[in-house]
Structures are given as C-alpha cells and as structure tokens.
Design goal:
It is built from 3 helices and 13 strands; from the N terminus they run βββββββααβαβββββ. By secondary structure, the protein is mainly β. The strands form 3 sheets. A 6-stranded antiparallel barrel has the order 4-5-8-7-6-9. The chain has a 5-stranded mixed sheet with strand order 10-1-11-12-13, with no helix packed on it. Strands 2-3 form a two-stranded antiparallel ribbon. β2 and β3 form a beta hairpin. The longest helix has 9 residues.
Length: about 200
C-alpha cells in the first residue's frame, strides 16, 4: 500500500464567502473504435468526476504520483460547461470502446461529471507535456486525482503546500484484491471524500 500526503489550502471567494474547493477524478479518455477496424482515436474527451455541483468558472490541477510518495502537478484545466454531463449518454455514445466504458464505470464516489479542457491562459511544464501527447494516434486513457486549485509550480509536491483558508489532504492508496483499485482520499478541513478508480499502472 502506498500513501502520499498533500496539504494544501485554497483561497476561493464568491460574494465574500469562501467556498470549499471541489475535489475528484480527472479522466483523459481518447475514444477508439477497434470494432470498426479503426486504429486511430475517433474522438477525445476530458472529464472531471466530483461530488460538488459547480456554479462558476473553475480551474483544476491534477496530481500524478511518482515513486517514493511524490506527486507531480499538472496545471491547469478549465471547466468547459457548467451543465453536468450525463454518464449514461457517455456510455451509450461510446459503447463500442470497451476501455473507455470500463474506465468510466470503474470510477466511484462522484455525483457530477463535467467537461474540462486545457487552460488557454497558463500551463506548467508537466501540463505542456500532456498537451503535446493529447490528440495523437498513440494517446492513452488515464485517471488522476484533481483539486480545484491553480498550482503552476513545476516543483514536485511532497508534504505541505500552504495557502489559505482550506487545508486539503490527499492520500492515494493502492488496494489489492479480486479487483485491484486505486483510492483517492481527500480531507478538506475534516470533510472526507473518497473516490475509487480502476488500477492505474502508470502511477
């Protein structure tokens, strides 16, 4: 079992009220139609799965776990549409792609799904690398924990990231069993939220 802690506090203001940041799962999902003999992606989708209903423009950073309990940060992703996406429609639209269907069905713990895109304003080094591979014939699906925060630093995160007013603890666990899963456990000032995803072999 691997554990990594990230402490972050995030400043969000709306009408002079601090809103608790959204946490969840980012999904990069190239769409393949091998059933039709097509070896290149026929579409590309990016989503965030979260328990929080989003009501305004939102920026996410995602976290790629490396060896020895270190996360690299990819920033930033922008919310495309405030209207949630229907999971049923996603599964029906891309029912020919077994990998995509299994990835979406394997994500647990969310209530809302939103389309996101690479930020047009600012992106850090890791994000720029991801952008270069996105849309290529060799693009692969992957899932990462996501937090509503703008972290443009290229430094790996281990330990404490301090801003205010929220402290966010992220713990990634790998649990072995009949079906192997990764668990993303978030603690936002004592409010705990857990998501599970299919095992990610890339970290």
């Amino acid at each position: 079992m691997k554990k990594t802690l990230i402490y972050a506090t995030v400043l969000y203001a709306s009408c002079n009220v601090y809103a608790e940041p959204a946490v969840g799962v980012f999904a990069n999902l190239p769409v393949y139609n091998f059933q039709a003999g097509i070896t290149k992606p026929v579409a590309f989708e990016m989503f965030v799965f979260t328990k929080k209903k989003l009501n305004s423009a939102t920026i996410f950073s995602t976290f790629q776990m490396q060896e020895k309990g270190v996360f690299n940060v990819a920033c930033c992703f922008d919310l495309v549409d405030l209207n949630p996406v229907s999971v049923e429609k996603i599964l029906n639209k891309y029912s020919f792609d077994d990998t995509l269907v299994d990835s979406v069905k394997g994500i647990k713990g969310y209530q809302y799904v939103y389309n996101v895109s690479y930020s047009k304003q600012a992106n850090n080094k890791l994000q720029k690398l991801l952008m270069k591979s996105h849309g290529l014939d060799t693009d692969i699906p992957y899932l990462m924990p996501a937090i509503e925060i703008k972290l443009l630093s290229d430094e790996s995160i281990k330990g404490l990231v301090s801003t205010t007013p929220y402290k966010i603890e992220l713990v990634k666990k790998h649990v072995k069993g009949s079906v192997q899963k990764d668990f993303y456990n978030f603690n936002v000032d004592g409010n705990r939220t857990t998501f599970s995803v299919p095992l990610q072999t890339g970290g």
